[in-house]
Model the fold of this input.
Amino acid sequence: MNTSLAITNRSLHDQVANRVRDLIIEGVLEPGSRIDEAGLIEELGVSRTPFREALRTLAAEGLVIVRPSKGSVVRKLTPEDVFAMLEVLGHLEQLAGELACARATDREIAELADLHDRMLDHYRTRDRMPYYKLNQEFHSRLTELSKNETLQDMQRNLQARLKRIRYIGNQRPEYWAGAVEDHEAMVVALKARDGKRLGQAMAQHIANTWDRVKDSI
Amino acid sequence: MNTSLAITNRSLHDQVANRVRDLIIEGVLEPGSRIDEAGLIEELGVSRTPFREALRTLAAEGLVIVRPSKGSVVRKLTPEDVFAMLEVLGHLEQLAGELACARATDREIAELADLHDRMLDHYRTRDRMPYYKLNQEFHSRLTELSKNETLQDMQRNLQARLKRIRYIGNQRPEYWAGAVEDHEAMVVALKARDGKRLGQAMAQHIANTWDRVKDSI
DNA sequence: TAGGTGCATTTTGTATACACGTAGCAAAAA
DNA sequence: TTTTTGCTACGTGTATACAAAATGCACCTA
Done:
């Protein structure tokens, strides 16, 4: 097992991929804009080879599009794209919910409930950023409880691609309240280990997400 | 519009990625074995740069694993991996089935039924290879009918990663018969546009697939 | 003989140079 | 004035060279 004190020593292209991924998610690199290879390698202080390898990774993840001989652009999501992705994400999280109820330990469920409580604290004080961060973690952790590696990979991928949009989506207070309610229902179902209900709740939560974000794309 | 007679002019790394992907799927490169960079670039007649970019793509697809400074290996699937992937694939195809019933045109449904009939012909004459190829196409086409791009991407990805195993799985005649029955049920449900039933049938089909392949991993 | 250390070889990782394709602009012709 | 054609500059694609890390082997020591 590869734990704690191992020196990560990640390869350059991995680091570059992570860095550029963040730049895209944070919106520093705007959707639809060309990726200035020369400019970025200058700024990151790396050469073209690892940078281009990183680009290929991001392309496979669906964050950028490489057009042969025409350079790369940050993928711009159409409303249709977002809808399609949410449709799939909703279904995946439904599965995750069902599996979690069947496979999670009591301890794991308690930990997630804890996390939810901390989210509520942030909600009460209206601290959007910490709430948002915990929210990402909530969904990730719940998916982990499915104990299905592939499911986690795909959930992570979709979550990353939708990150920006979901952040924008929860701007309006009434939307935020709705999201919190959804989560409440999810935690109740999980505690009761009611797989069907949790699955429904998660699918519904994602469906609601569409309503919350559709106007801000 | 970029139609028919455009010269594809795909970049080298794309071609390499496709080629190596096939080599892995066909089993020429055995699961768990190291990928001999020097040897392969020799054989493919390309240099290291495009080859390594291709590797990064395949890594993102989950077909190979790159260990920093230690080279790449063809990912070997454990039974747990396969089970997890089928669990997800089943759920995705369930969604695909439901959406297809809602969104496909009559013509598209008829075409798929046609494809199914051709599969039956191959089944009757026990032509495994052409049956197998049509089978892949059947699932791809049905997923297309969902009109959900993301869903198609993910289905394609999982299908590619499982390709070998599913081919091995249908060796035994009684298994093959079972798979044909599953398909029969799917086509009936699709024709009736009974989304729930088609979804169930597809999920069941994938679940059955696990029984068919689990002993040959 | 077993275990460890250091060196040599092989393999991987990164940088850079060169070649090719694309796009934009200017000049000429209609 | 508009369209077409050729040239140029820029950016991308590929190859290769160099650097760093890892593996394997021989030799030394306990």
Remarks:
- Chain A has two domains: 12-74, 79-216.
- Confidence is low (pLDDT under 50) at residues 1-7 of chain A.
- Chain A has nine helices and two strands.
